[in-house]
Amino acid sequence: MIRVEKVSFAYNADSDSPVQALREVDLEIERGQFVVIVGHNGSGKSTLAKHFNALLIPTEGNVFVENMNTRDEKHIWDIRQKVGMVFQNPDNQLVATVVEDDIAFGPENVGVPPEEIQRRVDEAMRIMGISHVRDKAPHMLSGGQKQRVAIAGILAMQSNYIIMDEPTSLLDPVGREEVMESIRKLRREGISVILITHFMHEAIEADMVVVMDEGRIVMKGTPREVFGRAEEIRALSLDVPLVTQMAMRLNDMGVDIPRNVLSVEELIEHLC
What we know:
Mean pLDDT: 91
CATH architecture of the largest domain: 3-Layer(aba) Sandwich
CATH superfamily of the largest domain: P-loop containing nucleotide triphosphate hydrolases
Number of domains: 2
Strand content: 15-25%
CATH topology of the largest domain: Rossmann fold
CATH class of the largest domain: Alpha Beta
Number of helices: 10
Largest sheet: 6 strands, mixed
């Protein structure tokens, strides 16, 4: 698992004006879990995510990736192979002129034998459903397809954990659904996904939702537990999923349905 123990972090920690981004954060993420981290801008969610693969090192506390401390420099490359990261803009992550070559880029740079690289690339494209674009130029793909290529590149590194830092924020609804379907496929493969998002409906399928505010984890639990505390969520300048808002309004009007409904299907079942 990834284990975060009493982690605090300040940007420019050695300067006269440090910026405190994390404050005594504790968190455990198990293999195979789908974890969604939400919070308003500046809450610390991206800073926390960058600690998972040692892009940032805690000012205080420790982060362990499968019992390897990110502070230990001899483990850095092992940790970064186990924990991959997909960023917001897919165009910033693609380095080759052909999809297949882009996915192979990581394994090639760590000296994986050619036969093994080809096997990994084929498997990653199969999982992501992009085998049909293997010979195309990445810049000719849709936003959702580009993100799937980026995810496939991480799969080719045989990562056990994939961090996605707002990967759908620049995509249209079709692209967002493509990325969410990719997450579902990763879960079926037993890969942990840590998703940072502003879209609350993307958190509905998570095993755990983590809510951050001012560098702290202020709420944590299943989607039903977290979004059932709508007043507290709104106090943090966040929303609950639209279908949950509808269920709450109906409940306030006297309709006998739960306030923590999470899906349209569930709402219909209660109403009918």
